[in-house]
Write a structure and sequence with these properties.
Blueprint (H helix, E strand, L loop, with lengths): L7 H7 L1 H22 L8 H4 L1 E9 L11 H16 L7 E5 L3 E7 L4 H9 L4 E11 L24 H7 L12 H16 L11 H5 L7 H16 L5 H6 L10 E6 L5 E6 L4 E2 L3 E8 L6 E7 L1 H14 L9 E5 L2 E4 L10 E5 L4 H13 L5 E10 L2 H29 L2 H27 L5 H30 L4 H33 L3 H31 L3 H4 L34
Parallel strand pairs: 5-11
Antiparallel strand pairs: 1-3, 1-13, 2-3, 4-6, 4-7, 4-10, 5-6, 8-9, 9-12, 10-11
Length: about 600
């Protein structure tokens, strides 16, 4: 006799404890993550927690077109700033243009205000310039300490890892203190070599032209050289005002004087040649930990044309003597790093120095999103209060509590015992939503604002709708004459399809809304999409297994009148049985 195959419903019915154990483990892990991170409340947006409002004003730089401050450049700058401070679009930082030359940036309380302000105001003009000479950044007349130059390295496209580590790693060379005479002679020779027509910013000069001074230098070039020597000698890198103004009005093709910090935190000053590679040649940058040094660095990948330019630059520098075998990575006029070069490099570069995890990630973030088309300065910084948002939140929470109470009353009156399943599922969904929102704050910068609260309230209806679909399917099976346990298992496949289609439509709407909108509406869309996914998790891992277990209990299995599954209350008619007629007695006479 053939053994009947075990149905999928019977298998799922026999092991509901596994799904319940899994969701309990997920909840414990999320709550444990809150304790580990030390974060127990969601980060609030600027409308609920207040924050800082920064007004940036665009200004024309010397040599810049008078029409540079226009709507196109302002919109581009606002978009770049928004991507810098807003990341995935859910940190609730607000960026908008105001008037012809102002950008307003609102940063919610709870974010790192200092880092955010630095990212907002950083123009992020990145240039790679050859080093012509270097010296300690202390003012003339003091005894500078001799210490290594910034420890940065660059690496090309390696064919052998061992060879790549040995040949492509940039080395830090010590900068000895020198007398004013020798220093001045080195500066003069370098600048004369740079002033020749063959040593232009286009990168077409050969190695000899870049290192040998030209005999045909003009009086104008000599005057410029002398002025640059004086500026270099007088520059005090410990003076912030001197550092920020020393390169005002300079262009990428100019020879400049700049300051930077060494690996030990000491100031160094440089004379740098024209730029041959800039930030537009960087395709991607990210902050990583160098496996050899254990320090945070920023890796940059160049574009196709950028790789060619970088290879041409490093091929000219590799055979030079220190410090002319070094190139400086200059960000907004400051030397971030000045590594030496021992071989031709092309595909990528590594910026290293005294980076913390935050500063490395900030620099990578700024370089990834590109440079601002305009230069801005802070016009005003004000504090924004959350008084109005607090009142609106209070009113919204009252509305949400009223709506939740009405849902609970409806479930209890209409579904009776089944309402316990719905309430337990709502509580589980609430715990998952709260813990995830709390953990997403430090993880991706998610901030809870008023629209996000509205999305969470709307999710109550979506979750309750899934329970109702499942319960009604069970009742339909009971109306067809089945007992509770088979009714639960037969109702689940039909209810599951309906729930998945409904949640897919809700998630698709949330995804489209998130993509096509900006600002606070993204918070609503993000929360709606998150709670929709959690609805699927709760229904599959909690509601269905719990209903399977309860169907085995006598209270539900017997169809108690308060269980919500009473056959009589559902209108089920008892089966009609035919009765046999009594036989007519046989008449003896007829017989």
């Amino acid at each position: 006799m053939a053994t009947p195959k075990k149905s999928r419903g019977a298998g799922a019915q026999s092991k509901p404890g596994r799904a319940l154990s899994l969701i309990v483990i997920i909840m414990v892990a999320l709550v444990g993550g809150m304790f580990i991170s030390g974060t127990f409340t969601p980060r609030l947006g600027i409308d609920l927690a207040g924050g800082t409002s920064i007004t940036l004003q665009a200004k024309n730089e010397p040599g810049q077109s008078k029409n540079a401050i226009n709507k196109t450049n302002m919109d581009t700058a606002a978009d770049i700033i928004n991507r810098r401070v807003n990341g995935m679009g859910v940190s609730e930082a607000e960026v908008q243009t105001q008037g012809n030359d102002n950008i307003i940036v609102n940063i919610p309380r709870g974010t790192n205000q200092k880092q955010a302000r630095e990212q907002v105001g950083t123009t992020a003009q990145l240039y790679f310039r050859p080093v012509l000479t270097a010296a300690a950044g202390a003012p003339t007349g003091t005894t500078p300490s001799t210490s290594p130059s910034p420890s940065a390295s660059s690496s090309g496209k390696a064919t052998d890892k061992a060879t790549d580590k040995a040949t492509d790693k940039a080395s830090s060379s010590a900068t000895p203190s020198s007398s004013a005479t020798s220093q001045g002679r080195a500066v003069t020779d370098s600048l004369k070599a740079d002033a020749t027509p063959s040593s232009s910013a286009s990168g077409k000069s050969d190695d000899k032209a870049s290192s040998t001074p030209s005999a045909s230098s003009t009086p104008t070039a000599d005057a410029a050289t002398t002025a640059l020597e004086k500026k270099f000698t007088a520059l005090d890198c410990t003076d912030k005002a001197a550092r920020t103004t020393v390169n005002e009005g300079s262009k990428p093709g100019d020879t400049i004087v700049a300051c930077g910090k060494g690996s030990q935190g000491q100031w160094e000053k440089y004379i740098l040649g024209p730029s041959e590679v800039n930030g537009k040649d960087v395709k991607k940058s990210q902050a990583v930990i160098n496996q050899q040094s254990g320090q945070w660095v920023v890796n940059m990948d160049f574009t196709g044309s950028g790789s060619k330019k970088f290879a041409a630059t490093t091929s000219k520098l590799k055979d030079q003597q220190d410090p002319m075998n070094r190139f400086a990575i200059v960000l907004d006029g400051d030397v971030v790093s000045a590594p030496s070069v021992s071989s031709t490099l092309s595909s990528n570069a590594e910026i290293s120095g005294s980076f913390t995890p935050e500063s490395a990630k900030d620099l990578a973030n700024v370089l990834s999103y590109g440079a601002l088309p305009l230069t801005f300065h802070e016009q005003s910084v004000t504090t924004v209060t959350a008084a109005l948002g607090g009142e609106q939140l209070h009113a919204g929470l009252i509305a949400g509590a009223i709506g939740l109470a009405l849902v609970v009353i409806y479930l209890v009156v209409y579904y009776r015992g089944l309402s316990l399943v719905a309430l337990a599922s709502l509580i589980t969904s609430g715990v998952l939503t709260y813990t995830l929102m709390t953990l997403l704050g430090p993880a991706i910068g998610f901030a809870l604002n008023l629209p996000a609260v509205c999305g969470a309230i709307v999710a109550i209806g979506i979750t309750a709708d899934s329970f109702i679909v499942f319960f009604e399917r069970i009742r339909d099976e009971i109306r067809e004459g089945r007992s509770v346990r088979p009714a639960v298992e037969r109702a689940w496949p039909r209810a599951r399809r309906t729930i998945l289609v409904s949640d897919f439509v809700s998630f698709l709407a949330a995804a489209v809304l998130y993509v096509v909108t900006v600002g606070k509406v993204q918070g609503f869309a993000f929360t709606l999409g998150l709670t929709t996914l959690l609805d699927v998790v709760v229904v599959f891992l909690f509601t269905k297994p719990l209903m399977t277990l309860l169907a085995r209990r006598k209270f539900f299995a017997s169809g108690h009148k308060w269980s919500g599954l009473d056959p009589k209350r559902l209108g089920v008619q008892p089966p009609l049985r035919r009765t046999r007629r009594a036989a007519r007695p046989v008449d003896t006479k007829e017989a």
